[in-house]
Amino acid sequence: MSYNVDEKGYYGQFGGAFIPEMLYPNTDELRRQYIEIMEAPDFQEEFRQLLRDYVGRPTPLYFAKRLSDTFNTKIYLKREDLCHTGAHKVNNTIGQILLAKRLGKNRIIAETGAGQHGVATATVCALMGIECVVYMGEVDIARQAPNVARMKMLGATVKPATSGSRTLKDATNEAIRDWINNPVNTHYIIGSVVGPHPYPDMVARFQSVISEEVQQQLIEKEGTPNPDYVVACVGGGSNAAGLYYHYLDNPEVGIIAVEAAGKGIHTGESAATSALGKVGIIHGSKTLLMQTGDGQITEPYSISAGLDYPGVGPMHANLYTSGRGEFISITDKEAMEAGLLVSKLEGIIPAIETSHAFAIFDHRSFKPEDIVVFNLSGRGDKDLQTYIDYFKL
Ligand SMILES: *Cc1c(COP(=O)(O)O)cnc(C)c1O
After folding, report:
1. Cα(88) to centroid of ligand 1, in Å?
2. What number does the ligand 1 atom closest to the CA of 80 have?
3. Would you give the DSSP letter of residue 391?
4. Cα 352–355–357 angle (5° rounding)?
5. Distance CA 350, CA 338 (A)
6. How far is the CA of 234 from the centre of ligand 1 (A)?
7. Cα(307)–Cα(316) distance, rounded to whole angstroms?
8. Which residue, judged by its Cα, is nearest atom 3 of ligand 1?
9. Contact, 348 vs 342, CB < 8 A?
10. Prediction pTM value
């Protein structure tokens, strides 16, 4: 049995492509071509060259000595915060823009919530000189002004989604509508391991460079490619999928997924999808999502915008229900304090999303000889105002 995707686009019972018929030609074109395009030597060459020279890969695998001493185990940090644009998201947007070019597309659309994926998409569109339209909820546009300004500087058009709650879900609906109307010239860059097949698998493959590098780097540092645990925060699940990818079917490596419990799992203000979620369909994928008794999607809440998503990718839904992954929910308060601790102990200010992962030490312990690799998914610069307000700095 494998925890990776099967040929029909499923992870166990999760995944698939539950889409309106009018979208079928678009996703079918992708489904038929993505693996062949991605595995072609000229694609791999261009992808690897950009990851190296533009993104700054390989990112370091850093042994965090003071953090290790504090928690009495061996802690390594995979430094995705050092990627160009400050997080792992660009690994995926670089991959998808190269794929879009090979599909003959000359226009890119994307959805964004906090604006991080919008910025990563606008960045690669500028790099390639391709038109870029980013859909963003009106409420998010007001909340995330710096990222809106970044996208504009990078030449993207930011289109407000004005329906519903005017947040991520509504922006996604607008993007899908656009794609249906522009099936021939437009590629839709989804920002996480969510959406209809083949998106979860395609995005996981682009992000899998993370665990590919960890394997090589651990051989150098520890004489083995395998840590005892890999730990990552999960919003939609792309940075986690990248870190887990080459370890999914290796039972020697424990998988730990960290979700946002917001103000507490059962407070009604949470984004702990696995703990609270039921099987349903969101963004064209069958997965676990937070919903009311009659199937309405519940508004999620987390202090970190990147974890504020009511669903989780199908790979993670399967890791949870199969028991292959250990899922831990972390509150805003626990995450903020862990972020401050890592800053003071290691001189690295993590994104608040990432800070959730560092809060697991209050929930479980490790052996002194355990090798525990954390995905440091992003840097905290974007979150400085939230840290300032929270700690009254
Ligand atoms: C977007 C984001 C996340 C959450 O997205 P995933 O797809 O779950 O990885 C986590 N960390 C950072 C820094 C982000 O920008």
Report:
1. 7
2. 13
3. H
4. 130
5. 9
6. 7
7. 14
8. 306
9. yes
10. 0.98
- List the residue whose alpha carbon is closest to atom 14 of ligand 1: 306
Say how far apart CA 261 and CA 364 lie, in whole Å: 16
**In the CATH scheme, what architecture does the domain 57-86+208-391 have?**
3-Layer(aba) Sandwich (3.40)
Nearest CA to ligand 1 atom 13: 378
Sign of CA dihedral 387, 378, 135, 286: negative
- Enumerate the domain spans of the chain: 20-50+89-203, 57-86+208-391
Tell me what pLDDT residue 1 has: 84
According to DSSP, the residues that pair with 258 across neighbouring strands are: 233, 328
DSSP 141-198: HHHTHHHHHHHHHTT-EEEEE-STTSSHHHHHHHHHHHHHH-TTTEEE---SS-SSTT
Q: Are 353 and 235 in contact (CB under 8 A)?
A: yes
Cβ atoms within 10 Å, residue 341: 17
Q: Could you identify the atom of ligand 1 that is nearest to the CA of residue 238?
A: 7
Active site residues: 89, 111, 377
Secondary structure (DSSP) of 303-370:
SSGGG--SB--HHHHHHHHHSSEEEEEEEHHHHHHHHHHHHHHHS--B-HHHHHHHGGGGT----TT-
Residue 136's pLDDT band (boundaries 50, 70, 90)?
Answer: very high
The atom of ligand 1 lying closest to the CA of 191 is 7
Q: Do the two domains 20-50+89-203 and 57-86+208-391 of this chain adopt the same fold? A: yes
Q: At what angle do helices 314-322 and 199-207 cross, to 10 degrees?
A: 90
| pLDDT in the model for residue 143 | 83
Residue (of 278, 311, 300, 283) closest to 167 by Cα position: 300
- In this predicted structure, what is the pLDDT of residue 306? 86
Residue whose CB lies within 8 A of the most ligand 1 atoms, among 199, 239, 375, 387, for a mutation test? 239
Ligand 1: which residues within 6 Å by Cβ?
87, 89, 116, 192, 233-240, 306-307, 351, 353-354, 377-378
Class in CATH terms, 20-50+89-203: alpha beta
Q: Whose Cα sits closest to atom 10 in ligand 1? A: 353
Return the ligand 1 atom nearest residue 240 CA.
Answer: 9
Q: Tell me: the pLDDT tens digits for 276-314?
A: 999 999 999 999 999 988 888 888 899 998 898 889 999
Q: Ligand 1 center to residue 21 CA distance, Å?
A: 30
pLDDT score, position 295? 86
